[in-house]
Amino acid sequence: MPARTSQAIDIPNFFLFGEAPQAVGDRFLHLEALSDRSRPNNWNIRPHAHADLSHIFHITSGDGTMTAEDRTHAFAGPCALIVPAGVVHGFQFAPETDGSVLTISDHYLRELMLRESAFNALFAAPAAAPLAGDRIAASLERLARELAWIAAGHGAAVEAHLLSILVECTRALEQARSIEAARPRAQATLVARFREIVERHYRENLPLDRYALLLGVTQTQLRVACQNVAGLPPTQLIQKRLLLEAKRALLYSNMTIAEAAYYLGFNDPAYFSRFFAHATGNSPRAFRNRAA
Hints:
It is a single chain. This protein is an alpha+beta fold. It has two domains: 29-181, Sandwich (Jelly Rolls); 236-291, Homeodomain-like (Arc Repressor Mutant, subunit A), CATH 1.10.10. It is built from eleven helices and nine strands. It has helices at residues 35-38, 106-115, 118-122, 136-148, 154-201, 208-215, 219-230, 234-252, 257-263, 269-280, 284-291, and strands spanning 29-33, 44-48, 53-61, 63-68, 71-76, 79-83, 89-93, 98-105, 127-130. The radius of gyration is 29 Å and the shape is elongated.
């Protein structure tokens, strides 16, 4: 029996990316341009972790993917990417993606969470949240100015801008999660409406774009909804309804095979026979005889 070997998982643990771990102050706060570390690394930040630092990546333009533990999040600016402390994360940015990276010490975050419990949800897990109107850009600019100099009220000003950023990100993430939670219901409603229209038109051989037009959605939206809700593309749902009616015509009517074909909207009875045989493994005549 071969001897067992133990291997440690080698995940880089940095202070800031590429820098050796070091102790930070209780209210440590750092803000830098996204390109400062991304451009020298060819816009690819390999997976790593920070023991006691959390990030908010503010993406103003560009796109890419964020890998956080075992999940991959696609994003496009303007958006905020949330990375809690201790999470293994990496990025693949499109070249010249623009934005900034705000880093906050765990101690400072816990202090703020005690004052505002909503911030717990913001840093509960890695996330990407679209930013409507990009309202945190101005707060980040003012925060950058305050961090670069010290004047009367410096500490209060820094915290005021930080709180504004955290509030906007919390609300953006809450809205994104609400939309995501509502999507299955909206898709189920769309598929139900689609089935109703199919019931009225399945014998007319309408193209998919006509169904989409009747529903007021794009073909892509219809395909995604049908796949997510019914597990089938819309064309197959139409064919299933047509096939059901074909079986009914063969089992419960005296129509000939040709009459059934014309009744179902087929111009060629031979094509109907091929359609039926492909779907069931039996010709229409064999299906009818077997049932009899």
